[in-house]
Specification:
- It contains 4 helices and no strands.
- It has helices spanning 7-21, 25-32, 36-50, 52-97.
- By secondary structure, the protein is mainly α.
- Helix 1 packs across helix 4 (52-97).
- It has one domain (2-97).
Length: 104
């Protein structure tokens, strides 16, 4: 398990993963089963002292991800509301097809 590794070793593995997959901190945290805070601390603080070249590349990726964050957030919101509208349409279609009970 990655949480059993030393911080130095883990920071290199996380940095390499981020670069190889162009991943976000959140995606890396999910894959490795650790918190976003741990991933961020490893690649922004520990990695600098362990492997400065890798640190520089990871920082470029993190900056790119930060610049694109609002786009990913907007896409997630669009998907959410598109799905909700579809659910409402599906419900309405089922409701309209249901037989009407008359009470007289």
């Amino acid at each position: 398990m990655i949480s059993d590794w030393s911080g130095r070793e883990r920071s290199v593995v996380l940095g390499e993963y981020l670069l190889e997959h162009s991943a976000t901190v959140r995606e890396a945290a999910r894959v490795f089963g650790i918190s976003k805070s741990t991933v961020h601390k490893d690649v922004t603080e520990r990695l600098r002292h362990v492997n400065s070249a890798l640190y520089g590349e990871v920082q470029e990726l993190l900056n790119k991800n930060k610049q694109e964050r609002h786009l990913r957030g907007g896409e997630a919101t669009r998907k959410k509301y598109t799905a909700e509208r579809q659910t409402q349409r599906d419900f309405k279609a089922v409701f309209e097809k249901a037989p009407q009970n008359s009470i007289n």
